[in-house]
Amino acid sequence: MCELLGMSANVPTDICFSFTGLMQRGGRTGPHRDGWGIAFYEGAGCRTFHDPTPSAESEIAKLIHRYPIKSRIVLSHIRRATHGRVCLENTHPFTRELWGRTITFAHNGKLPGIKRWPLKHYRPIGTTDSEHAFCWMLDRLRARFPRAPRSPRVLLEQIEELAATLHAVGTFNMLLSDARHLFCHCSTQLSFLTRRAPFGPAHLLDAELAVNFAQETTPGDIVTVIATRPLTADEKWTMMAPGTLQAFVDGLPIATHVARPTNTQSA
User: Fold this and answer.
1) For the stretch 14-51, what's the b/e string if a residue is b when 16 or more beta carbons lie within 10 angstroms of its beta carbon?
2) Any idea what the CATH number is for the domain that residue 192 is in?
3) Going by fewer Cβ within 10 Å, which terminus of the chain is more open, N or C?
C-alpha cells in the first residue's frame, strides 16, 4: 500500500526534515516505488509537484528536499500501485476546485467496487479508485453545500459521514484539505505528533539526519505532522484508532470523531 504525510502549522513552516524521511521509503527503505507527490498551500494558492518515478531516486524530490518551501498545510503521498498503471495522472495528491477553494486529497488503501458509484460534476483524470472516491466525495459535498458552510463543525460532520461510508467498503486512510483545515481519516494505520515548546532533537528512522528543533523554531510555533508510520525514533507519536476522523487547524486538533457510515453511495 501507499504512505501518507501531512502537516498543519500555525506559522509557515518547511517540511524538509519529515519529507526527507518519507522519500527514502519510496524505493530505498520501503517498496513504494510507483510515484510520489506533494502539495503546499500558500494562502488561497496551492503548489503541487508530482513525479511517477520513485521518490528515493527522483530529481524533483531532491529539489523539494533542498528547497524549504514554507506552508501551513502540506499533503504528500508515496505510491505503491494497486489500481491503475504507474503514470503521472495516477499520482497523488489530487486537486479540484470547490467553493472557490483548492481541495487536495491523498489516499492509502483499496476501495473495491468504488468505480461503480455514480459521479455527476467531477470526473477522474486517471484510473485509480482513489481519484474516483475523491470525485464522489466532492459531488456529495457540492450537493449538500452549494456554498461553503460557515461552520467548520458542519463541514467536519459531513466529511465524517462520507469517510465512514468509504471506510465501510474498503481501506480508507485519507488526508484532505480545503486550504483552511487538514482532515485525516484512519482506516487501518495513521499516526501524528505535535511539536511545540519546549522543543527538542529528533532523529529520522529512514535517514541519517537529526534536527534540534529548539534551534529552528520560536516559542510560539505549533506544528503537527501526520504520517502512515512514525518517521522519527525519539518522539512520541499518537496512533489514531481505526474508524476515526481527526481535523487540524493551525497545528492543533479541532475535533476527533468516530465516523459512522451513511447510505449515500447510490445518490
Assistant:
1) bbebbbbbbbbbbbbebebbbbbbbbbbeeeebeebbb
2) 3.60.20.10
3) C
Q: How far apart are CA 40 and CA 236, in angstroms?
A: 25
Q: What is the model's pTM?
A: 0.93
Domain ranges, residue 26: 3-107+175-252
Phi, psi of 72 (to 5 degrees): -100, -15
> Following DSSP, what letter does each residue of 95-160 receive, concatenated?
EEEETTEEEEEEEES--TTGGGS--SS---SS--HHHHHHHHHHHHHHHH-SS--S-HHHHHHHHH
Helix (H) or strand (E) run with residue 65 in it: helix 59-66
- Element containing residue 18 per DSSP (H, E): helix 16-24
Instruction: Identify any residues that bridge with 133 across adjacent strands, giving them in sequence order.
Output: none
Query: Is 49 a member of any domain?
Result: yes
185 domain-assigned: yes
pLDDT tens digits, 53-108:
999 999 999 999 888 899 999 999 999 877 678 999 999 999 999 999 999 999 99
Compute the Cα dihedral for 65, 69, 73, 79 and give only its sign: negative
Residue 30: CB partners within 8 Å, gap ≥ 6?
3, 24, 78, 206
- Decide if 62 is inside a domain: yes
Model confidence over 97-138: pLDDT tens digits? Answer: 999 999 999 999 999 999 999 999 999 999 999 999 999 999
Question: Cell for 229?
Answer: 508510520
The answer to whether position 152 is within a domain reads: no
- Residue whose cell numbers read 524538509: 16
Q: What positions carry a catalytic annotation?
A: 2
